[in-house]
Amino acid sequence: MDPVWARIREEAQQGVEREPLLGGMFHSSILHHRTLEQALAFRLSQKLASAEMSEQILREIMDEAHADDASLGEAARADIVATFERDPACNRFMKPLLYFKGFQAVQAYRISHWLCKQGRADFASLFQMRVSECFGVDIHPGAQIGKGIMIDHAHSIVIGETAVVGDNVSMLHSVTLGGTGKSDGDRHPKIGNGVLIGAGAKVLGNIHVGDCARVAAGSVVLEDVPARKTVAGIPARIVGEAGCAQPSLTMDQLFKGEI
Predict the structure, then answer these.
(1) 173 Cβ contact partners less than 8 Å away, ≥ 6 residues apart
(2) Are residues 152 and 131 in the same domain?
(3) Residues ≥6 apart with Cβ < 8 Å to 166
(4) Whole-angstrom Cα distance, residue 50 to residue 56?
């Protein structure tokens, strides 16, 4: 039983009936495939293909990755559910798969990360480059990203090589998880579980953002953030509690307390 995939197929069939002119897309992208993994490989290979790497080769690489590592498909399902539950613009499970570049970019990153772990650095770098060119999202293959991830709008997201992002994290467009200079080694942020990062926030350096914290839009975070706190400003400072048990799920970005 695969309730996520079953629902996507049901929605695609309804889409054919509702919008016959898009029937070819619904069939080729969803209804012609037996599993979500196959549909993901097809859709992403369509998006990322170029003169340097054909759609067929990309699809074979993705099929190989999904066959080798079942956690890739599990994470994709968790990301679909997360997007549906947190993004008010997402009213169907199939929308992230077909239309949302944040979801698509994260799934392509997961393939590049798998390639990186296999020692196939050039292929991983090619994936990173094409994701950046196609989706405006630059995630280094070496970064470690959990599941249940929702990146809303996703334009201009940058996540560095040694960054770690926990489970059930939500972030908006123009977020940077970057370094602070030319030093190599472990130089990027570590984001805990359940964290909400607002639009345009920059989290810089090898610092830790604790579980269920909130980073306000436009903030520049240069120091550790305790769990379940809200930080805001340039440089960011603690302005109050997170306001709920898991901010990434409620997506509440308003601060209601005293600064």
Answers:
(1) 151, 152, 153, 154, 155, 156, 157, 199, 200
(2) no
(3) 146, 191, 192, 193, 194, 195, 211
(4) 11
Span 61-78, pLDDT tens digits: 999 999 999 999 999 999
89 in the same domain as 5 = yes
68 and 87 both lie in a single domain = yes
Q: Which of 136, 171, 201 is the last residue of a domain?
A: 136
Considering 136, 151, 185, which residue would you say is the last residue of a domain? 136
| pTM of the full structure | 0.95
Domain count of the chain?
2
Instruction: Mention every residue, 6+ apart, whose C-beta is less than 8 A from residue 117.
Output: none
Residues 34 and 118 in one domain: yes
pLDDT, tens digit, 9 for 90 and up, residues 138-168: 999 999 999 999 999 999 999 999 999 999 9
Q: Are residues 73 and 159 in the same domain?
A: no
CB 43 within 8 A of CB 58: no
Sign of the dihedral defined by the CA atoms of residues 51, 29, 58, 118, in that order:
positive
Distance CA(208)–CA(7), nearest Å, equals 37
Q: Alpha helix (H) ranges present in the chain?
A: 3-18, 23-26, 36-48, 55-68, 70-86, 94-99, 101-117, 121-135, 247-250
Residues of the domain holding 216: 143-258
User: What tokens appear for 41 in the block?
Assistant: 């490989």
pLDDT band at 257 (very low <50, low <70, confident <90, very high): low
**Strand 137-139 to 196-197 pairing:** unpaired
- Read off the tokens for 16: 């054919």
Alpha-carbon torsion angle 217, 160, 204, 221, nearest 10: 30
Instruction: Output the domain CATH number for residue 216.
Output: 2.160.10.10
